[in-house]
User: Fold these one by one.
Assistant:
Number 1:
Amino acid sequence: MEYRTERDLLGEMKVPRDVYYGIHTVRAAGNFPVSGMRVHPVLIRAMAQVKQAAALANMDSGLLDHKIGEAIASAAAEVAGGGLADQFIVDSFQGGAGTSTNMNVNEVIANRAIEITGGKKGDYHLVHPLKHVNLSQSTNDVYPTALRVAAIGMVLELSESLAGLQAALQEKEAEFAGILKLGRTEMQDAVPVTLGQEFSAYAEAIARDRWRLYKVEERLRQVNLGGTAAGTGLNADLNYIFRVIEELRAITGYGLARSENTVDLTQNADVFVEVSGLLKAAAVSLAKIAGDLRLLSSGPLGGLAEISLPEVQPGSSIMPGKVNPVIPEMVIQISYQVMGNDQTIAMAAAAGQLELNAFLPLIAHNLLQSLGLLKSAANIFTDKCIRGIMADEARCRYWLEESHGFITALTPHLGYETAAEMVKKAKLEKKRLREIVIDSGLLTEGELEAIFTPGELTGPGVAGAKHLKGKVI
């Protein structure tokens, strides 16, 4: 392999001749061979968008030669479009508040810009990573701004994925609206509900998560770009400071605005804690729904089996014919990961000191991972599970009839004490409650049928009251 020699304040190092990164990246890759996980590609693309905006603003402010600036902007746009992705080799877990990532981006863009101007990689007299690509910037305003830009896009995508999940659940709500079944509280027989009502609750939970995330995106629009090292704007031209936000807004299409207090945004990371908290809430909803679906589909012969999930793969290497609820299980695992990420983000945000949070790379890794995981999980949950759920209406009715769950609906007609006696007698004689009530002569089969309809049993008011007016206690 051929090498080129590069220099920094610590000395010289050999860098592979054909790569676009440089000495700062090589040092960082050697210092942080930690996880094997590279910086999230969405963050890299967002940082490239920031570099593109900075180059355009620096040119407009007369701070950067147009030939150099145009080459940087072109190279940055290429990276923002997903180009040169294999050149970003720094581990996601790194010290320095993101400086290693910033320098990796600076060097790749500089060397690509050098090529655009007709030079060879490493000839930093033409385009320099710090002097030109990083002009008017600091890691401390570039990295938080890029993280906000990356998070905005992923929040909006997740919101759309949750909208699809909500719609699929609402379709099942309508499909199952007339299916009467046993409701359960504390895992015990309770009162009748419809299967559609259960799915309506799932849809409402996801709707809340979707709305909360859609609204929190507004909080991410405030950025500290132009604040440089500590948010004071030292070494940044005033025209550049205002121009760069306009350029970044145009490049991203997001309604970004410069914070009125860039010192605040440079040292505080609480907005990421807020976003992560809402991701945790969404994860809780997903885990609850997925857990319910596993329970409702359990069996199919030895469990509840009120619904069946799509069969997506064989479930056992030893038990022939077994099929497991693998999609809900995946969703639950993703949900737990997001909950854990939220705790990590909170701790990292709290660990910031004075004018900067050194642990932004950890926040970025976990926040962007959570956003990506939830989006994928929601899409897969929708496509491979929710849309294919089928109800077993006979099974739903069976458990309701076998239980004592509808005795509550009879209480206004029989009185509490009489109703309790009917339950006790049904248990002792091991008969269905319906049979005991009819045999007692308290209600006729026709009167019971007037009570036992989905509309009567699962809506407000006394079930059957308009049909049995004389018998209401």
Number 2:
Amino acid sequence: MFDIKTATENLAITSDELKASLEATNKPIVFDLGNMHRYETRHIPGSAYAVCNEDSKKNIMPRLPKDIDIILVSDDEEYPKHMAIMMSQMGLKVRYLKGGLDSWKWSFQESVEKDITANELKKSLDASVDLFLLDVREPDEFADWNIKGSQNIALGDLSRSLDKIPRNMKIIAICPHGNRSKIAKFILQSYGYDVQCLEGGLKAWSTALEHSVNDFNISGNKVQVIPVKRIGKGCTSYIVSSGGEAAVIDPVFPVDYYLNLARKYNIHFTRVYDTHHHADHVSAAKQLADKSGADLYLSSYEEYSFGHKPLLDADVHTIGNIKLEVIHTPGHTMGGISFLLGGKILFTGDTLFVNGVGRPDLRDKAHDFAAALYDSLHNKILNLDETTVVYPAHVEMNIRREELLPSTLGMIKETNRSLLFLDRDRFIQTVTMNIMQAPKSYKEIISINKYNSVPSSINEIHELEIGPNRCNI
């Protein structure tokens, strides 16, 4: 029979014992379960802030190393005591600080060590800074999606795998949301490693934005194209401006990113477009149009339950003095739209990519959509001038920001000759037989984009979108 009183006594540790253990060679992990604001201003040196909610009980605690000493502390001892009993029953080596923080007789740490943001990590990778990217998720999670060049050692195996981790490099610990990586950071720091966490984890990596600026001259008119790219997902939207007037194609959240760029480059949004019903991200087109005062244009070949202006094949709009031609290019979706700017620059949405084509299966009619995709490519896109600059709605995830340059149609045709120049039947067969796993939450995202039932918080939006790009073949 479990004796809670005996268990509680065995799990208690005094402040003197904790101080001695922190000065020993094999240091414990100290988790502070208290108030976050208090932790930021006062905590035991070397302790890590932790939240014990249902998610951590389900997804983090079972993955903690069983051979590491864990000490739980808080303002008082009651909650750490309760959690220590529960975690010890899970097979973890855990104790709690008797008397809480009031029993600590020594100085406190008064600042929180800064981790690395997704944008900072991307800049370091672009600059070829020597980093060891350590992904501490489980192997199946890692196989599903990871940052290129990262190495996988599951959190529970970390203390047994130190020989695989270089001591002469900065370590960047990576996990889904930043929780497991914080634990990994403190484990490795106790062994003398130089470690930072990827702040916000892969969720932040998936949704952080970066941009570049490309300048063109079309018929004597200056045209500026600003690709806005999701760092870890490759989703790319575009600000297109000429003569101080601008349009945005396929915007994502947060909309303030685009509004800040408009102020920075002194341009005025007059139109916002979506090329199709997106399946891998929540469209910010309506919200951006509403906030900027621009007109919202959406494909007339797809259903939307909210107000907008329709796009029809062969429509012609203008940006400054430059014509923007609407081309209906079904295949990835039946309502897909491409835009040809000044006869020189083509925005292809998810119809044609630099290294592939849009997948045809997300509406459960893969054969019919693949046939439509072939016709769109061969009747409308591939017969354009080979010098046409192509901007797709997804680009390579690992490309450097300063290299966010477009390809030409001729270059894409040469790169993808084995796919693009198949006969119609072979093309349909090839694209329908090479379908990858569907994007996470894609049916819910499609529904949100159709009905504009956008979640109220940016956090909920980004949680739906987490994961790699899976819209191409």
Number 3:
Amino acid sequence: MKRTTDYGWERFSALPLADKAECFARPDGMPFHTIFAQQFGRGALDRLCDAATQIRAIAKTRAGMEFLQGQLFHKRAMIYFTQPSSRTFLSFLSACQILGLRTGEVRDASVSSEFKGESREDSIRTFSSYFDLIVMRTREKGLAEKMAWALSRSRRPVPIINAGSGKDQHPTQALLDVYTLRRSFERRGGLRGLTVVYVGDLARGRTVRSLSQLLANYEGIRHVFVAPAQLAIGEDVLASLRAAGQECVVSDDMAKWLPEADAVYMTRIQDEWDESRGESARIDTSRFKIGLDQMRLMKPGAILMHPLPRRDEIAPEVDSDPRAMYWRQVRNGMWMRAALIASTFDRLSRIDKYYRDNL
């Protein structure tokens, strides 16, 4: 098994993702660090989805919640978010509380030693002295991966969970999205053969990059990427999916594909990444919005998803449609992140036994 200690950073950073995934894995194949979507094969996805459902059921009783909170009561987690977030932050905080972890947080670098000039790498190494898990969200491309490599080589390896890294990956959002899809289609044949239509800012949307990679674990998925030309999906994503035998379509015609969709994954325009002021505002996005008229084009059994936050790409009137799944995604995220944290500390077998013995 490959180990990070076998590589300096320059050599490690140039490795294929499959080799990096092996370095970041535990002996049982589940991730020790969770950095990118390609770490999760079909077996790992099934195990985490099952665990999320088990934790959800166990937490319904007082005895079950006491059991869950006893799993990691002796552990501490640092939630280190230097990129603005409320939803993902609270989702991870709630997941930690479900499992009994005590938490610390930094949500503004100006109140940390970074304000004095300390590097983020040194800040994270400091946190690893106090905490047993670091959940991090950052604008900085590759920082989560570099710190996972560094902490794997330290005397006290501490796992890192990437809660959003630059424009590259958002693996835990993708995990909860797969969980939402699985729950939505579990009585209708599962995820095999679905047509998934991704809409919006696909060039800069890290959620789409991660979700499409996870869905490559399922047979017969047709990925339809719908966006203005300026915000089209990257060629690297298309190449990776096609290499995995997945069908990919690139289009700028949302109305054409809505009737074909089993799942529509809407995204907002990510103008926080604009290189020049007002750059995104000059792009015509009027054809890439969902209202009641667009919902009428969709199948009765299709679902509408969104990683949130939204702006005006989904009209509020759509919220009452039973096919709108984005609020369920929010709640699913808490359970899936609890399952991932439990897996990180090798607690899934205990949870599975409790579930089988008591429910």
Number 4:
Amino acid sequence: MNQYTGSKTVGLIIGLFTFVFALELLTPPDYVFGYLYIGPILLASSYLSRKTTFYTTALACGLTLINIWFPGFESVKPPTFASRIIAILALIVTGILSDRIRLDQQTLLQQRGKLEAQENLARVREDFTSTLTHDLKTPLLGAIETLKAFRGGSFGRVDPVQDRVLATMVRSHQTTLEMVETLLDVYRNDNEGLRLNLAPVDLSDVAEDVAATMTSLAASRRVHISITCGASDFRQFLGVNGDRLQLHRVFTNLLANAINHSPRGSRVELVLESGSSYQTVKVMDRGGGVNGEEVSKLFERFYQGESDAEGTLCARLAKGSGLGLYLSRQIVEAHGGTIWAENRRPTGAVFAFRLPSATLGKNY
């Protein structure tokens, strides 16, 4: 509050005190006008300091009490004295409550200021991260193409040992590039929303396509991928209205998560279940399972799990940024579906999602 407003408030309080006190002097003590001092007390509490509010309340109580004997129209009766005491108590309660409200408002303003500062800081961090990850794509793409050129013999003959090293470097750079692109997509989806190119899609076809592309990763982990259609031994059509590219990413994220957490020599099962209302996809592994207390957190942004007292993982500790499952949740929910995780008996985990069914066109 500026000095002009403070002076104006003080003048208004003095004017109200003068007016009320004049009414008290011109009327018998039976007429209690001391309640009107509530106005100056509220003004002091709203615009002046706590100390000023205290003095204003004390003055109002004193003037209300003095009017019992001054200017002395008649002797004081017990009911008159009781009315004055009640008025004084009302003024005291008003001063206390207004001071309490003032403190609560100050606390709320401080908390709001902290929240706004935190939101601004988070926005700056996200802008910085988004810009940084965007700028990282160019050098990563350049490094990948250069390594591929090395493998192709553009810079001289490459022996088998060098070729294996270069292949490992290419995979590493490609993984990093995928993480960067995932991070960019997550920030873009959070800020702008996920834009879908909807069309009839067969989830069985997408599952087979993704399984074929994940063969190399599964082979490196010595994990076998199998696709089954529920209780049927034959391929089924799981029609949905969706964005094929985005659904491809969901399959890739869940399948890669299962492969990375499966013991060597085990199996990852991709189970497709067709229904009249929903099409369901389940990715089942034989890994360490899921901690029940952390299931709800697995699909949060950057969540990577925690370790228990013995140092074993209590959740699916993702290798990387922890954004794959969060992005999968964004995509599935944008399609009007749900995604979840649960334990598999006797060991392992199930990551699944379901989408509303749709009838595929004849020309599909």
